[in-house]
Amino acid sequence: MTIVTVGIDLAKNAFTVHGVDEAGKPALVRPNGPRAKLLEPIATLPLCLIGMEACSGAHYWAREFAQFGHTVRLMAPKFVASSR
Predict the structure, then answer these.
(1) Which residues contact 40 (CB under 8 A, 6 or more apart)?
(2) What pTM does this model have?
(3) What is the pLDDT of residues 22-38, one digit of tens each?
(4) Does the chain have fewer CB atoms within 10 Å around its N or its C terminus?
C-alpha cells in the first residue's frame, strides 16, 4: 500500500512522523528522529498530503516539503489532538 497522508509533530530538537495508507492503517512510524534528518524520509515518499501544527518552524518545513511535490496543510493548534 502507498502512503497517502503523513502527520508530522515538530518539536525543538526532534520530530515524529506518522504515515497512513489508503485504508488508514499505519505505514510509516518514526518516533523521535533528529531534526537534521527530517528531509530524508520525506524526500523518499511518493507524493502525499502532509499535515503539521502551524508554528513558526512549520512554515519553513512546509516550503521544504513542497519542493518535493508534496501537498502541505498547516493546522491551527486548537485542531491538533495531543496523544499525551
Answers:
(1) none
(2) 0.86
(3) 998 998 888 888 888 88
(4) C
